[in-house]
Write a structure and sequence with these properties.
The protein is built from 4 helices and 4 strands. By secondary structure, the chain is α+β, with helices and mostly antiparallel strands. It has 2 domains: about 35 residues; about 80 residues, Alpha-Beta Plaits (2-Layer Sandwich). The longest helix has 19 residues.
């Protein structure tokens, strides 16, 4: 784990008050935890936009499972990128609607392209992708190897 470094930040009193409200509403244990999370989120956005990081993502799709060949197309796309699809879970919402939760991992540009390809299929009602770094920024040390 990287060493903790302390630093000072100067803020206007009204901005600090707003930040404290944000921390309380979001139930952060401390201001430091809130700042760490905000920095990580912003750095992830930058890394993804610059294609500078290996990312993990969750893609949630809500769709009409009665739409002709939609599920076949979704499966075909996922199988064609099996190296990027970690896992998928299918959930029945109503008689007509299903939700697919797909875990993805790989280079940002490839993950966002795959998410766009699936999200753009005819019959998809809602699509949301959530992207995070797959490892700590600047971490070049030990990589865990999972048993196969």
């Amino acid at each position: 784990m990287p060493e903790i470094v302390r630093f000072s930040v100067s803020l206007e009193s009204d901005l600090l008050e707003q930040f404290d409200c944000f921390c309380a509403e979001s139930r952060f244990a401390t201001r430091s935890e809130a700042i760490r999370q905000l920095l990580r989120e912003r750095l992830t956005v930058e890394a993804v936009s610059n294609d500078a990081a290996d990312v993990a993502a969750s893609l949630t799709l809500v769709y009409d499972h009665h739409r002709a060949k939609l599920t076949d197309k979704m499966i075909e796309i996922q199988h064609s990128r099996a190296d990027r699809v970690v896992s998928a879970m299918h959930v029945h919402l109503t008689h007509d609607l299903c939700m697919e939760l797909i875990a993805l991992r790989g280079p940002a540009v490839e993950i966002l392209d795959l998410a766009s390809e699936l999200s753009g299929l005819k019959g998809i009602y809602h699509a949301k992708v959530f992207v995070v770094r797959a490892e700590h920024p600047g971490h070049h040390g030990h990589h865990r190897h999972h048993a196969e």
